[in-house]
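Annex B.
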Amino acid sequence: MNTIRNIRKVLPILSFSRNSIARSANIPKPNLYLSPIQSSLYSTDQEIKVEIKQNRSVPHVYRCSVNDPIKHNVNNLSKFYRLDQAELNVIDPFQECLNREQYAEFKAFDETCLMIRQPGVEIINYLKNLDLSLPAYRFVLYGTQNGTGKRSTLLHILHYCHKDNWLLFHVPNCSAVLRKAKENQPSSYKEGRLDTPIDAALFLKRFSIQNMKLLKELDLKTTKKYDWSKRESSPEGTPILELIDYANSRIKYSSDICGAIVREIKLQSESNRYKVFVAIEQINSYFGPTRLKRPDKSEINVDDITIVRNFKKLLKNDWKNAAVVGTICSRGVIIPAPNRRTKFYDVTIPIANRRRAEHTLEYEGPLTPAHLLKKEGFYHLEPFVPIEIPAYSDLEILNHYEYYKDRNWLQNEDALTDSGKEELKFLSGKNPREFMRICRAI
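Small ribosomal subunit protein mS29: predicted structure tokens.
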């Protein structure tokens, strides 16, 4: 019995010495998962800290280390940069720049990332080198297909202008007021015109949030007296911020106050105290019909809407220290709703031979500036610089895929393979919006 007990005491010692000899012959590389005993045998604390530092410094090739849009250049193309949430709340206070799907992704990823693309960097370089003593410069963003990223490019440019202290005039989804205004009423300023007070008040609220810091520094004031009614008026020298507060309390005058602010900003831009950036989406809707009707069912023209008439003045080049960037797309083409009596039938055909015909309210033609702006819009904006927003390049769609992969957005295992990546590229046709929607479903 004593011999057996002695053998049991000796065996652990022999096994430990044998394992230690084996370790000394082939010492494994230290890693992040060493236990306290293993770390004392294999490595020192200093070696472990060095290894941790090396792992944390591995860069992501699809991310840009420069988050300031003023410093973006061609070396940062096709990469994602992070937009600070506080700045986004100022630039886009009501989440109108992008579609709902993208805002849902930002919330899911807990970060706002935009891709740096060639058209955005090109316009930023233009803005840096403009001679602002010349008439306003105008750029038109277009794409030969929908969903190529016109709005995200415009948001990138807005971010740059915000950082570079431009006074922002931002009108997102401008065709909405021409389809169905939230509220409309006859103008008190001129007979025959139509005021849209709620839409005008929303613009003024957005304008004040985006430019609050700059407006306080400039302390802009009116150059003449404005009469809103027989009893109410704003005297000469009224601060612009006070005008906006007055519009919030007296919403019925907000459309006329928009016109007053547009006039004052254009007039005082001659003083060279500030530079103005105008960003209007779907500007082709300003040169077509509307779906709004008067009480007598007659059609309302675009120039009869007070707020639209004032915004169209910003598109002219009769002022300086300004740059205008607009987008055109199929959604900006407004096709009037057909008459109920002739909605599905051609009345020129005899009744016996009539057949039900399809009718669509969606534009299905070419997406070039000549077709979308038509003759009136083309001459109104000329001269302008057209800039195409193309579909993704191979590098851009690869970086977008790697970004989704890093954020664990792709849950299907087949999508993580090389063949799955090629299939996603093929199914989306390298279209950014289609790629986003396909990846959301897997």
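The radius of gyration is 31 Å. Residues 69-388 form one domain. Further annotation is deferred to the next reporting cycle.
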